[in-house]
Amino acid sequence: ILLAIAAELYWFARSLPWGMAAWGSGIAMAVGGGVIMALSAAVRRRGWPFRVWPALYACLAAIPVVVALVVLLVVTNLQDGVVYQQTWLPLVNPLEEGAAFALLGLVVFYREVDRYYPASFAQSRPWPAVVLMALGFWWLNGALLRALAWYGEVAWNWESLWHSRLIQTTFALFWMLCALVVMIRATRHASRQQWLGGAALLGVVMLKLMLVDSAGG
User: Fold this and answer.
1) Buried-most residue among 154, 163, 173, 193 (CB within 10 A)?
2) pLDDT class for 147, splitting at 50, 70, 90?
3) Which alpha helices (DSSP H) does 152-164 contain, by range?
4) How far apart are CA 25 and CA 97, in angstroms?
5) Omega before 49 cis (within 30°)?
């Protein structure tokens, strides 16, 4: 069934006309996230055959979908998200909506693995949570970049984006805010690892201000 769905999505994306790539990427991610959530819901309802092999359906069967979603979240975040002859809106567009479903599906998968394989999952901590947070942070950066490029009328190419003062300044402020939030949360929860992560991000911001923003004049 999963192979059939994947094949249909592939041919659907291939048949889309020029300027509709965001729809293909968004639908693929939304369907992938929806499949994981549907499997989880079916297992929790304990219908046949899901009640017989709950761990198989909720965790093992979803692994190919999870891998595909991770790849899609990394790769499609490089798209501008603009649909031909349609007004682009931040967060309310095919690419961002599809990514939201994909991230939600990954969170559901994370909880299901923790539920059915607690011993194995405990040995791999904290890396699954780190990967989830990294994917979320990666996509937030992409969403912010798309919004700035659209409303700032910056061409979607590496040189234009890199030399935009609006984009560089906004990203420095955004990263600094994220670092401060992480450090405050880490202080409240007495988590040294989280605090060091926030401090590292703050250090990256300082380096960026000195090497990139200051160099731009």
Assistant:
1) 154
2) very high
3) 158-162
4) 10
5) yes
160 token code pair = 């234009």
The gap between the terminal CA atoms of the chain, to the nearest Å, is 56
3-9 contacts: CB < 8 A, separation 24 or more?
A: 5/31, 5/35, 6/68
For residue 167, give the 3-state DSSP assignment. Answer: helix
Amino acid present at 56:
L
What sign has the CA pseudo-torsion 99, 102, 108, 111?
negative
pLDDT tier, 142 (very low <50, low <70, confident <90, very high otherwise):
very high
153: tokens are 């009328």
Q: Would you state the structure tokens that stand for residue 139, as one six-digit string?
A: 């996509």
**Rounded CA gap, 195 and 83, in Å?**
40
Grouping H, G, I as helix, E, B as strand and the rest as coil, residue 85 is coil
90 touches 147 (CB < 8 A): yes
* Predicted model pTM: 0.84
pLDDT, position 145: 94
Q: At what angle do helices 63-75 and 127-151 cross, to 10 degrees?
A: 40
Rg of the chain taking only CA atoms, in angstroms:
20
Beta strands in 38-111 (DSSP E): none
List CB contacts of 64: < 8 A, sequence separation 6 or more.
Answer: 2
- DSSP H helices, 59-164, are 63-75, 94-116, 118-124, 127-151, 158-162
Contact in structure between 176 and 208 (CB atoms under 8 Å) = no
Q: Find the length of the chain.
A: 217
Please state the rounded mean pLDDT for residues 175-193: 89
